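Below sits the subject:
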Amino acid sequence: SVPTVHNLMRTKINVEDPRCPFCLIEAESCHHVLFSCTKSYPVWTLMYFWLNELTVLPCSPKMHFLQHFCSTKSSNGNKVRMVVWGAMIWNLWKVQNSCVFRGGSFGHGM
């Protein structure tokens, strides 16, 4: 599993601040940081705007993944979507790590 605060606390590892490093409001979890945080959610909406798609973002990471890949019938379109989705996840996670380990903030140096 991904080492989020939620998962670390489940394994009895002491965590100084359990809040999301982006919004500093909600508890940090993989779903929250990558999909539903008030900072990351707009990034996804901008991505779908860039893809010229209107969509409702699902609540679970699995459904988010499936919806993203099932909305096109073209194999080339799916390859592009796979790269774009992976890049989004990777960059959001890198920013999260920068916030946690380097004291960065969302939007600074993105």
Observations:
- The chain has a mean pLDDT of 79.
